[in-house]
């Protein structure tokens, strides 16, 4: 029930939790909210996110606190441009690229 982000170079990323007021996913499932912060150089170790040691992760942020806009028309969770998933994860796809990891094709 939260918003996780593996794009550690984004200014909205706080220990793998997205702190943006809104998240905007494009029709190609890219996160358009991504805003590069050149001062951040954290290594992504979130593959271990479900291990007992969670000292490096921020508290979860309830999805109802964020406006989730989505243009991925064929996504199971997209209802009239709003994401209705219980939570989303934005993936780091390399240099400046992101992807919604929660995307499930209808």
Q: Structural class of the secondary elements? A: mainly beta
Q: What string gives the helices and strands in order? A: EEEEEEEEE
Low-confidence segments, given as residue ranges, are none
Largest sheet, if any?
Answer: 3 strands, mixed
Please state how the strands of the largest beta sheet are arranged side by side: 1-8-9
Number of helices: 0
Chain oligomer state = single chain
- Backbone shape: globular
Strand content: 25-35%
Rg (C-alpha, Å):
13 Å
Helix content: under 10%
Number of domains: 1
Mean pLDDT: 83
| DSSP strand tally | 9
Cα end-to-end separation: 21 Å
Short description:
By secondary structure, the protein is mainly β.
Task: Please tell me about this protein's structure.
The chain has 106 residues and is an all-beta fold. The chain has one domain (1-38, 63-106). Helix content is 0%, strand content 25%. The protein contains no helices and 9 strands. It has strands at 3-5, 13-14, 17-18, 22-25, 67-70, 78-79, 82-83, 88-92, 98-100. The strands form 4 sheets. Strands 1-8-9 form a 3-stranded mixed β-sheet, with no helix packed on it. Strands 2-3 form a two-stranded antiparallel sheet. Strands 4-5 form a two-stranded parallel ribbon. The radius of gyration is 13 Å and the shape is globular.
